[in-house]
Each structure stands twice: as C-alpha cells, then as structure tokens.
Amino acid sequence: MSEAQATDSARVDVGGIAFAMRYRDDIAGDEGLCIEVRADVEGHDTELLRFDCFRVAPHYHYGPEADDERLMLDLTAAGDSLDWTLNVFERGRLRSMIERAGYESVASGLDEAEVAEAMPQVASAARGIVEARQS
Fold this sequence. Notes:
It is a single chain. By secondary structure, this protein is an alpha+beta fold. The protein has one domain (2-134). It is built from five helices and seven strands; from the N terminus they run βββββββααααα. Helix 2 (81-90) packs antiparallel against helix 5 (112-134). It is globular.
C-alpha cells in the first residue's frame, strides 16, 4: 500500500487497484472531488471507474476509457455524493462494478480484504482534499 499526497490530490495503491483522488474545479458551474479507480491493464495505467463527487451534478462512470457509461446521482436519494461513494467502496461493491466496466481480469485479482483495510486511509485522504479546498 502506498500513498502520495498533495493539497489537491492523493493516491492510494492497494489490493491490485489504485484510488487516485483530485479536486476538480475545471467544470463550468460545478466542482468537487474526483475519485478514479485505476489499475494496470495490459501494461497501461487505466481508469476503470470514476466517481465525480460534484456539488451540482454528481455522477459516476463505468469504463471512462472504454464505453464510458455515465450515471447521475440523485442527491435527494443518495445524500452527500462523497459519503455515497465511500459507502459503495466500504460495502464491497468494487469487484462487481469493475466487472460491469469490462475489466473482469482486474476484478478477479482484486484483494477485497486489502481494499477494506485501506478504506480509512482512502476516506481520510478524500475528506482532507475537500476540507483543504473549503477552508
């Protein structure tokens, strides 16, 4: 497990995947934390899933570098988009989401126990980036 952190970004490598986090304010009228789930696919660092925890229009993507299926979050039902995203990770939904994105080989090699163990580190890094931008 490794982590490199700056004020606006962090990366946690664990269990065969990486959580790459950065704050985005390059979207007209919106901003927020972006969490990419990445892995090595055939020798290339590939974005498997992306969770855009934006203020106005939060959404997530299956296979952003492939088919790029985008689903909007209903803030009324989901509440805070970062809380929702971290909950998805903590409930162990990553394997099935990575499979749906078309990366079965990555999903089959995912070490879910390591990922679960690293969730406090991922959550802390994510919240730290957001708090730094809001202060």
